[in-house]
Amino acid sequence: MASASMLVTATAATPGLSEFASDVVAGLSRPGQKELPSKYLYDDVGSALFDAICLLPEYGLSRAGMRLLQHHSAEVVARLPNPVVVVELGSGSGQKTRWLLKALARRQRVNYYPIDISSSALWRGQQVVGQIDWVRVLGFVCAYLDGLRAVAARRRDGAHMLVLFLGSTIGNFDRPAGDQFLRDVRKTLQPGDALLLATDLEKPIAELLLAYDDPAGVTAAFNKNLLARINRELDGDFDLAQFDHVARYDERHRRVEMHLRSKSCQRIAIRKAGFWCHLDEGESIWTESSHKYDPEEVITMGERTGYRCAGQWIDSEWAFAQSLFFAL
Ligand code: AVI
User: Ligand 1 pocket test: which of 117, 288, 318 has the largest number of ligand atoms within 8 Å of its C-beta?
Assistant: First the structure.
């Protein structure tokens, strides 16, 4: 990859710049590898493209998570304290959670609190789980930890919490940041509260690369939509045809990385941020990491961040784990 890159920053300190604009300016101003935070992949278009990714035959994560809950929800519920309220970090489509909520609703009335930064994602999930008898849904549109604290503040005496972090979203954090996130969640919990954590597991590299660079080009569209979003929201002039979607596996960090590689030497304007950046031919913008785990490593990760593991289920078709932890 070309390393020399020059950039012209007019307004790194522009007052009143939105958080999105400042993060874009900061990421594209980085010396060496340019980056854009993966959380910005999920505007309405990006979320719809992600839903389409979950249907791809090459991307087995979501179906694995669904199969696990379909087959093991009763076992998970049998290990939980009674009663529990359910908090989900990232509401998703509601398809997976439905199995768990149904199993739980066989023994108790359930208060279910999905938390998502996107109100449209919350709304879609609620259509599915809102149909289940004995389940009351109250969604929170906010960041995960803020929502978790808000739910914890409503907790009634004697009620425990079950936190769901499904979909292997923890894999989009670097490993140290993943640990920190689990510690932050733990701070909001009381001893005996539960966390069901999903993690995608290591598998042959060719299989992983196909999952993140599918032949139909859906993941490429998902990745490039980040540039399109900058064009839409910040009056940028990225020419999407001048970028290749690249998925690569970093063996040292055990993660798939998504990049957008510039096909030419180009200068891009992002007018609402008053910012211009230069990209060399072959230079890339790093947009996402997706870490892959060893099952034992997941248990250790929980243990060093304040939990004990009470069960782990692994899908037989796609290496993917759900681990049940209790806060110590
Ligand atoms: C949301 N997250 C767990 C997905 C993943 O697999 O890391 C996002 C994704 N990126 C490309 N395909 C899917």
Answer: 288
